[in-house]
């Protein structure tokens, strides 16, 4: 009985993917946990290509395989080093979600650059590069620009939070989570920069 992970070549259009197929570790089904099945291959194919399982057509040696089948890979002849063909495309909905996350990521990158410019200017003031009579006005402007960055980050979070996905969109959910985590980190940085500005303003008021 085939139980350990195997490596196969998945051919999808003009692309070839090296895919490892392994039994799931989060199942109560003893047989499923110890035997590689066609459904495990379909899930691995999804992870590699983002083509949802229900939209996949797997072909091995000219024969179509049912992607929800619990047939063992061994019984259909698939062993380590086998070549399997995949026919299918990402769902239009999932593809649109991916494009939307990509657009948001690009916009976040633009705002992040603005935040970095603000950080550099704060560092310059902290190091004494700006003459004293200009500092207070500069800090007010920096705080206003930082607030604008914060607003932009929050709007991006709202867009991401408003995306409705089903369980078949796991890879897109992972991309969204990664983007959300990155924005949360940038918001934390905004808080840190705001504290630095407040410290500089307090220092100016005490003079």
Explain this structure.
- The protein is an alpha+beta fold.
- It is 57% helix and 13% strand.
- It has helices at 30-34, 38-49, 92-126, 132-161, 170-205; strands spanning 6-12, 15-21, 57-60, 63-65, 83-87.
- It has a five-stranded mixed sheet, with helices on one face.
- Strand 1 and strand 2 form a beta hairpin.
- It is elongated, with a radius of gyration of 26 Å.
Annotate the secondary structure layout:
Elements: E1 6-12, E2 15-21, H1 30-34, H2 38-49, E3 57-60, E4 63-65, E5 83-87, H3 92-126, H4 132-161, H5 170-205
Parallel strand pairs: 1-5
Antiparallel strand pairs: 1-2, 3-4, 3-5
Brief synopsis:
The chain is 57% helix and 13% strand. The protein has helices at 30-34, 38-49, 92-126, 132-161, 170-205; strands at residues 6-12, 15-21, 57-60, 63-65, 83-87.
Name its key features.
five-stranded mixed beta sheet, alpha+beta, 5 helices, 207 residues
Supply the helix-strand structural class.
Answer: alpha+beta
The tally of strands reads 5
Helix content: 55-70%
Task: Please state the overall shape, judged from the principal axes of the Cα atoms.
Answer: elongated
Q: What is the typical, i.e. mean, pLDDT?
A: 89
* Radius of gyration over all CA atoms, rounded: 26 Å
Give the count of helical stretches: 5
Secondary-structure element pattern, one letter each: EEHHEEEHHH
Our estimate of the beta-strand percent is 5-15%
Could you list the spans in which at least 5 consecutive residues all have pLDDT below 50? none
Give the biggest beta sheet.
5 strands, mixed
The side-by-side strand order for the widest beta sheet comes to 2-1-5-3-4
Distance between the termini: 80 Å
């Amino acid at each position: 009985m085939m139980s350990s992970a195997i490596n196969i070549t998945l051919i999808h259009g003009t692309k070839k993917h090296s895919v490892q197929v392994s039994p799931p570790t989060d199942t109560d089904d003893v047989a499923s946990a110890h035997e590689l099945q066609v459904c495990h291959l379909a899930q691995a194919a999804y992870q590699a290509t983002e083509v949802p399982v229900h939209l996949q057509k797997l072909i091995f040696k000219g024969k179509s395989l049912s992607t929800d089948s619990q047939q063992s890979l061994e019984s259909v002849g698939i062993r380590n080093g086998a070549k399997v063909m995949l026919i299918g495309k990402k769902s239009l909905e999932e593809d649109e979600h991916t494009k939307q996350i990509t657009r948001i990521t690009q916009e976040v990158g633009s705002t992040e650059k603005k935040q970095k410019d603000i950080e550099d200017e704060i560092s310059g003031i902290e190091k004494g590069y700006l003459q004293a009579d200009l500092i207070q006005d500069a800090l007010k402007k920096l705080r206003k620009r930082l607030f604008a960055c914060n607003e932009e980050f929050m709007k991006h979070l709202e867009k991401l939070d408003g995306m409705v996905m089903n369980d078949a969109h796991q890879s897109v959910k992972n991309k969204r989570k990664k983007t959300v985590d990155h924005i949360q980190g940038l918001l934390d940085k905004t808080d840190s920069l705001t504290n630095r500005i407040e410290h500089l303003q307090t220092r100016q008021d005490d003079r």
